[in-house]
Amino acid sequence: MPTPPLRRRIRTALATAALTLAATGLSACGSGGPQDSAGGGGAALEAWVYGDPSAAVQRKVVDRFNKTSDVKVKLVEIPGEGYQDKMRTSMGTANAPDIFFNWGGGSISDFAAKDMLVDLGPYMKKDPALKKAFIPSILDAGRIDGTYYGVPMRGMQPVILFYNKKVFREAGAEPPASWDDMLDLIDTFKEKGVTPFALAGADPWTELMWLEYLLDRFGGPGVFQKIVDGDKSAWNDPAMIKAGETIRDLVDRGAFGKNYKSVNYTADGASTLFARGKAAMHLMGSWEYANQKANQKEFAKSGLGWTSFPAVPGGKGDPKDVVGNPTNYWSVNATRVKKGERRDAAVEFLKFASQQSYAKDLVANGDVPATSDAKEQLTAHENPEYATYQYDMVSQAPSFTLSWDQALPARFTAPLTNNLQKLFNGDLSPKGFADAMRDVK
């Protein structure tokens, strides 16, 4: 089983691949390789899912659905390392899936632009319970130009500010409730010889979480939404410049220590420093808990604390806003599933993701479901306190911004991480970063 950070890194790569389809061209591919579970004869709907241990949840729902439907579903589990190529070479061909796993937003925007996806809005209007079944901020995060093309089908993954309880206790400190608290804690931990924030500067996607939260807190989610909508000038929005200046201030204050440029995440570098008390806090996706459980079990059990990213002075953003990976989604391929019985069956299959039995399976798998009524089931989670915190954090969020490297078209991915790393390392000024991103073709 790949570790949570590796899974996250693969997810980003796969989302990028989906976005490059229009530029790279499409060609047919063979059907060999994936493992599939039988779901009926040749008329079965083929549903592709990312092949990892969480696919066990999707196997169960396929079995339940096939007991109720004349049109069957066949689940095809694509190994993680093969999902990228499989999607690239199949969408738009006769070998494409009928239903497929994705990340919403930018990961399917090219497909939506080519009218390759089923608009789920009319189905939600006809069956309002379907829309109400999911936390609004997560359901909305999967929209494209206001249109719903996906239904949440896996757990939520918000970015959380984690802290080391033992380090805080020994310093007589409390988790930050304001930006001034954050700045004071930097001084407090530096005096103790502890790096205030673990940061894996060798893996620059980890730095993106800081920019995402700071832009939201200074300018609100609308600034980044303008960028997603194609407004290049929004890269030079005052809130973006202020976010960049704040990053430089944090670096200069020593918030990330002196060696962050050489610290990695994918080999557990930053997480290990954090767990061993060499760093006091760590801004990371919710998968950090699973990562710590796998590699520093005792720390995960009793030493890991969590809180929200605070507001900033003069900021326009709501401090309850969340950034990260809202969840994964099921979408229906409109070019494969024409109107009629098969399309109706495909949408009915998507509706199974809104059922309590599905949420129960997710909880048993260690996930936190995106359904609006899942909270009562979280007592069965392996860490109910942590799961409930995540659930409340997301369900109360006015906005959940998708990770920028997944929300933006593929041409932005490399420039974004490269330029952001230069900003952190002092090789680009905040304005220089904004200008460089504005000029990405």
UniProtKB/TrEMBL annotation:
Signal peptide: 1-28
Xref: SUPFAM superfamilies: Periplasmic binding protein-like II (SSF53850)
InterPro entries the record matches: Bact_solute-bd_prot1 (IPR050490), SBP (IPR006059)
Keyword annotations: Signal
Keyword Signal: yes
Stretches that traverse the bilayer: none
Pfam family of the protein (one): SBP_bac_1
PANTHER family in the record: ARABINOSE-BINDING PROTEIN-RELATED, BLR3389 PROTEIN
Identification of the protein by name: Extracellular solute-binding protein
